[in-house]
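Below is how a single chain appears once it has passed through the pipeline. First comes the sequence as given, then the structure the pipeline wrote out for it. We keep one example in the README because the format questions we get most often are answered faster by looking than by reading.
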Amino acid sequence: MKNSKLLIGSIVYGAAGIGARVLSIDGDTLTVETPKGTRTIHLGKIVKVIPPRPKALKLGDRVEYIGSDFNLKKQYAGVLEVWEISKKDSDSYACLKPDGRVTSWIEFVDIQLAEISK
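Resulting structure:
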């Protein structure tokens, strides 16, 4: 399994590449919701985990850029802080970079909450 946290609400993938949402975890057995209904699978069958995402971010949240744009990955490297939230329907965010400058608008799908180690 890929190096990700397994939480209820995560999307998990097996070797067939079909995603399933985790409904519950009982030891090494997961109850998941698939396109064909609810079923149980063994943890060992999981090859990839995508953690659940919040429905929205709030001011001050610490995030990381995960988009596919190579130039933005370089420009937005490190932990960003949500600085402003778009008032439009597009659900995008301007973030404060580690160097103190503000990013352009970043779409929600291109950022995720940062894992801050203590």
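Residues 11-50 form a domain with the SH3 type barrels. fold (CATH 2.30.30).

See the next section for the split statistics.
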